[in-house]
């Protein structure tokens, strides 16, 4: 094998940057952080950032912190802090250190004083509107604030008065003195502090001035000794400001690297949209199994492994793009295919009677738990002459290629016998309400001596033994590729899939009526399901995690969506 043929592990652009900085000696270790703002629940996009930051620290023997960027008390809450920690642990990660940007408020205040003393920051009396007008536009430079040339002494005095509560909310700001003509609007004397009397979930009422995100984020990274500050692309234009603050303060200077936000087809994964869905009752809370929150995926039945595998497979990208939702769905299918025991359940029942079965007789059959995993063994099922099968598995008249049951045809009952349908019973409207079959005693699964072959196998439950459960058939929340694309007068709400939830009664193998909350199974031929927390001792509730195959892809191919 020549050198070029050797398998080489491909590195993404962040890993390349890290390795180059380690090689050049710019940094001597990999120190990352995951920095959520505690203003909402984590979503699948955050999972990507978590996997990236914790993953890099692990790969390079480094450290990863969890830091709450809690600079906006008006929108933040401990409820979010707790749920974020819980979701990160559930995903399988543990932070090395836990920090809050609010723990750095004193240090930030002192650093602001330093910038003021050195002529790099000033107190400005313009209100929010005026500040915006002075800022200029993308094509026009801004104008200097009339307060830009205050002396450091005056600025210090005013800044202290701001902190001491001597001015009303919004009356003054502290701004960095950079360049009002910069082509990068973020460098046009950005605001560092605003006056805002809001109760903070950690600092209480100690402060009436709060630092802006940009003035907090990089400094927090620096204090913690972060070396690689990975963030999403919208912060690319903020990097010069990140660098400016570190340079002017002369403090440890991490490297900010931007990557593209995860966007998934058929989903909207911003906190803003999710908040609206929850507030307007369009979904049943943050943990609604249709929501793209980690809470939602947990309740839906996704495993942490399936989400981690998905994140690792899609990798990190430098440019925005959309990932097909089918890849996430396939990730959970693949994991559950290995993990989930098979069980039989009938969700749309049609009565099937075996006319040559001895009256009242019940037999035990042996059903394999997971054909892909011999170690999972088998279980016993009660078989009788009165069964439920799926409506869909029977046609009175069917095309030649219909390999399920039809009148005059034969099929194998999984873990049962080959049956032959000779007649049907109909109601007054002509609907088939019962299928009449005979069974072939020589064809019992596992003991078949008949040599008979049939093309199809269907599932069933014994009518007298099956238990009723509630089944929640979840489907995609939006019925379009990109719910953010709206015609005039429409919002994303108009794209909600009206069929994203159907609640039905299902008939399941008896032991499933005792399944524990959180148990996952495959209902044979139907999909993967999890026992929901709404289950009671009297009635289990099963959520459909995902169907066995991508039915949407098929429908699209036939032009059947919308
Ligand atoms: P949202 O758009 O939902 O409000 P956010 O970026 O405001 O998200 P933060 O709590 O500030 O949410 O984010 C914490 C970390 O997660 C940040 O580093 C952010 O860049 C990253 N992140 C947020 N959304 C995504 C996404 N869709 N893909 C990858 N990373 C993301
Ligand atoms: Mg944010």
Keywords:
single chain; 562 residues; alpha/beta; Rossmann fold; Ribosomal Protein L25, Chain P; 3 domains; seven-stranded mixed sheet; 13 helices; 27 strands; 26% helix; elongated; binds adenosine-5'-triphosphate; binds magnesium ion; Gln/Glu-tRNA_Ligase; nucleotide-binding
Describe what you observe in this structure.
Keywords: Aminoacyl-tRNA synthetase, ATP-binding, Cytoplasm, Ligase, Nucleotide-binding, Protein biosynthesis. Residues 340-440 form the Glutamyl/glutaminyl-tRNA synthetase class Ib anti-codon binding domain. With 562 residues, this protein is of the alpha/beta class. It folds into three domains: 9-259, Rossmann fold (3-Layer(aba) Sandwich), CATH 3.40.50; 271-341 and 470-561, Ribosomal Protein L25, Chain P; 345-459, Beta Barrel (Ribosomal Protein L25, Chain P). Helix content is 26%, strand content 23%. It has 13 helices and 27 strands. The protein has helices spanning 13-24, 44-59, 78-91, 105-117, 128-135, 152-163, 213-224, 239-249, 271-279, 294-300, 304-314, 325-339, 551-557; strands at residues 31-34, 63-68, 97-100, 121-124, 173-176, 191-195, 209-211, 228-232, 255-259, 342-343, 345-346, 349-354, 362-368, 378-384, 386-390, 394-395, 405-406, 410-413, 418-426, 432-439, 457-458, 461-462, 467-474, 501-508, 520-523, 527-531, 541-547. The strands form seven sheets. The chain has a seven-stranded mixed sheet, with helices on one face. β2 (63-68), α3 (78-91) and β3 form a beta-alpha-beta unit. α2 (44-59) packs across α11 (304-314), α7 (213-224) crosses α8 and α11 packs across α12 (325-339). The longest helix has 16 residues, at 44-59. The radius of gyration is 31 Å and the shape is elongated. The model has no long low-confidence stretch (mean pLDDT 95). Adenosine-5'-triphosphate binds at residues 35-37, 45-46, 48-49, 231-232, 261-262, 269-271.
